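Course assignment 3, question 2. Fill in each field.
Student: A.L.
Task: Predict the tertiary structure for the chain below.
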Amino acid sequence: MVVVLPRSAYSIVRVAKDIARVNNWKCIIGSYNPLMISEPVLLVGNPDGAFNTLARCHAHNRQVWYLTTEGRVLNPELVRIANTVKPYIVANSKYTKAKLEESGLWVDEIIPHGTRYEPLKHVPRKNIKYLYVAGYLKRKYPPESSDVIKYVSSEAVFVTTFNNPYIPYMKHVIVSVYDSKNSWFKYGEKHGICGEEVLKILYRSAMFYLNLSTTEGFGLTILEAMSFGCIPIVLNVQPFNEFVSSECGYFYPHNGEVEEEPFGVHMIEHRHYNAEDVIELLNKIKYDENRAVKCLENAKKYTVKIYVKFREFFK
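Answer field:
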């Protein structure tokens, strides 16, 4: 088995590498000759134009597609390719499955993402109240998030990119490791860089993971935070409430407003919320170590070991 992915987001690259590592498979990122591969391939990514090209290049291979999406996909060419090569399609959440099938891509199975961090055995000492790790995209920082950011600014650490328009409201900012080198050079000394070790320290130190996104295909950073006993505060919609239970996390409500944002072949689906509801929740909740323990227990169900399920498709 060979794991291949097209030009992809940083989180998808990590997932592909984890799948390959857990199963002792080769992972190809970058230029290669598809005709030199005769064995089955696992294609990982978003169902976009780059994925179309990749699937066509491997028409001679048996294929499994591991897909994620944040809304409907307007990609009839990929539907035609699927009807021709007959891949086994795997989604990373019930939400992704629903959106893919709404787009004409029928899903055979769901395998959720797994955290690459082994969940801690005990809850560590906490000294940061709120943490949020997300580079700037509209779905990760919708307009309603600005009032929440202002409200928690003095007690929160944000790991983000320097195209984020809400940085002026953030008192504690660390530059995301995948930001541009120019940003590292220009701003790194002032704000610091969030590499792997820094990220683990932040996860260990934070009481709450305050997720402000209106949608995700899964939400891997939430799960990673839970591995360190960091209690998630999330919007009460799929996919977040698929792996965050009421025993280990807190939910703020969707206000009923849905907006679709064109993004290439994607129609990013924003399920909006009211900042007032988030702030009201923050005023009600208190840090509870028992709930943090439940986070650790829940995270054990979603480690990278879950990816061994992919072996079953190639027996």
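Instructor remarks: Residues 182-190 have pLDDT under 50 and may be disordered. The radius of gyration is 20 Å.
Grade: pending
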